[in-house]
Structures are given as structure tokens and as C-alpha cells.
Amino acid sequence: MSETTSALPALNDASLLRIAGLIDGEWVAGSNPLAVHDPASGAFLAEVAGHGAEQAQAAIQAAERALPAWRARSARDRGLMLARWAQQLRQHAADLAALMTAEQGKPLTEAKGEVLYAASFLDWYAEEGKRVYGETVPASDPSKRYWVWKQPVGVCAAITPWNFPLAMITRKVAPALAAGCTVMVKPAEQTPLTALACAELALRAGLPAGVLGVLPATAEESIAIGKVWCESPVVRHLSFTGSTEVGRLLAAQCAPTLKRLSLELGGHAPFIVFDDADVDAAVEGAMQSKYRNAGQTCICANRFYVQAGIHDAFVERLAERVAALQLGPGNAANVQVGPLIDGQALAKVRSHVDDALALGAQLRVGGQLRGDLGASFFEPTLLTGVTARMRVAVEETFGPVAAVLKFDTEAQAIQFANATEFGLASYFYTRDIGRALRVAEALDYGMVGLNTGLIASAEAPFGGVKQSGYGREGGHQGIDEYLDIKTVCVQV
To answer: Structure pTM?
Structure first.
């Protein structure tokens, strides 16, 4: 590797910078170096030890060895450890945010918010693990008794994305550990530093060796690691957040071992604004949903359906807000929108905007690359006059582009919103209680935001339907993904 000068920010606790993988409680060097770069500037940050199939197998063995003792601990003891881990995250929030912004690009204020969001899952499942209750079922045969127990599924694996490199780890790992499972994590190749710092803090919280493994890897070796975990009969659960295409592949690879899957896949969220909506509230919700993390979230609004009577007023106010957004590197003062993660993401956003304009859409705000700021910057953009035949209306953009379509009737809005293979998140604004109930029930999505653009929290289940996957993360439902049900029939 010719790159030697690092652009990493100075940390208050330099020992949080880990560049080796974690297997069996030890920091392990890899054989395939992984270079990490700042998406804002392209500057080299660090070279991380990349792992492969051999280390993936070693992590399985370590997790299998650690499982009996971890499973035997009381839920209270496991919860106390998760709570200490959460406190470690909060204590080192500034350093974690600095690492996250450096390798992922999001504004520093958003990164700090993600640290607290990540800690909330540890807090929630520290308590929820103590509420895994069984049942005693009255039997029709008076000589028998039925007990229903919930027990940990065993060794688990998680493959996490780059857009929320800390929160997506704790959202998967916290319920698994609380349930008594051991877990291995393969973080995204773009953002391993945040994941490894998180693992360091887990060790400081007292997590035993083998209970948590973290294996950074190059893109090519990530495929090899995933294949090992999918095919292993020891691994009984796989959780993945990412594209629908990769989710389908992982599901096929897991089929021979019939392991349980939690798949949080692609989204294409509609955002509906009815004539009776509070326009200012709808615009605020649109800003929260669409432009957070530069539009690089699986639940961000992608298609804005605005009823004809309110369309022009909504567009005018939204255009003012979008034009005022500050674009720049995430560590710069007052920045609200950072860079896209890489050139591939930039090319997709560019192609969606170009396609829409070529087919007759109007550019109200933005629409330009900003090479003067860095390699991966695209202006916050607002398109109007969008139609259903444009790519931006049928594909997930994953960038800071809002596409507005006009509709006339409630039935039309529901039809447009549901006309997609995806079913993750949806949003709508109305002050009519009857309409609120009708539309919330009719939207074919795993999550619905009614008069809000922010829907995710640790205490509520998160997940989709249709091609957006299955399984839930968060809420009391999230821990059920890591529990098997056992029926015990007793002759008395």
C-alpha cells in the first residue's frame, strides 16, 4: 500500500482506532489489506486488516465455544453488560462520531445522533432480555402439563451496511446477545473503523471472548465470508441489511441449512401529502425524511405524491428549504448534507436526474455535481412534473433527490404508492381522522409514518414486506428473531 499519510481526525482516546479484526476476544491481523478513504475528499484514512473464509470459520468456532457459558448467564447479567456497553458508547460519542464522519461522510451532528441511537438499542434490549417469558398451557388431557419455553437460537451472523455503520450493528447484536446468542459481524468495507471502535468498547464493557466477533473485509472477501456463514450448519441465524439483490442471494445460500433470516432490504418510500394536510408540517417531515444522510437511507422518501389542491404551495415551501441546505464535508461547520459514499452512488443519482429531465421533469432546485467540494458531492435536488415512467419514480435513488408527482384522489394516491415491488417505509400527511385510518391500513408497507417523517426507534419494530424483506428489528418483536420455541409435555 503506497498510501501512508492518514487524514484521520485526532481522537480523545486514540486506542479506539482499531485496524484488526476481533475473533475470540483477540485482535487478529488479516491477509487482505482494506484501505479506508474519506468519501468527501478521497483522502486515505487507514489500512484495516481484511479477513476471508479462513477467519470466518475461526469466528464460527469461537462463537460456538462461547455459546454455552453465555447462554447460561442470567438475562439480568447479560443486560447489565449491554447497559455498560451503551454507557461506553455515550462516553465516547465524540470520538465515534468523528470516526463515522471521516469514513462515511455524514455531518458530524448526524453522526453524534447516530451514536445515541445506537446506544438506545443496547439500553432497550438490556431490559427486554429480562422479559422473555414462556407459557404454561392448560391441557385437554388432565394427566398432562404443557410448558412453552423460549431459548436462544445459537450462533448468529450479521452483515451490516455503510449508511449507519454503528446503529445497524447494535440494532442486530443487542437483541441477539440479550437472548443468549453469540454473534459475528461483517461490517461494510467502506466503514470498518466505526465497527471496530464499537467492538473495542464492547470488550471494555466486559463482553466475554467469542461472544462478539467483528471481521472487516474487502468487497471480494466479504462474499467469501458471507458464503461460509450461510453454508455453516453451526450458524443458526443470519441478519442482513442491504440490497434486495444481495438479500435474495443470501437467502438462497442459507436454504440448505434452513437457518433463520432477518432481511432488511431495498425501499422505495412514498410520501403522500393530502389537500387537508398542514403544509408546514409536511415540508418539515419531507426535509427530515429525504435529506438526512444525503438521502442515503433505506426509509427515506423517494416519491412525493402531492394532491392537486396543495401541490403548488407545498412545492414552493419545499423548494425554499431545499435551496437553503448547506452542502459540504461532514466535519465542516453548519453542514447539513454531506457527500455520497462513492462514485457509483454519485453516478446513479446523476442518471436518475438526467433521465427525469430528458423525459420532461422540471428542475426546481439543485441538480448539479459539486466537484469544487470534492469527488462525491451532489446538490440537494427537487424535481417537479415527474411521471411514473421516469426512473426516479420506479427505482430507489439513494441520494438527495426529491421527485414530486401530482395526484387528484385518495384512491389514486394509494394506487400510486403501492405500485412497487418494495414495501419498507411509507409516509402521509392528513388532518382527516377517517382518511388517516383508511390510508394507514391500505398502504402495503411494513412501516407507516402518519404526519411525521421520522419513524424509527428502538422500542418499535422495524422492517418491511414484499421485496423489502422479512423479520423485524427493534421492539419486543426484535428479540423474538433470536429465540426458538420449545414445547415440553409432562405426564403427571
So the answer is: 0.96
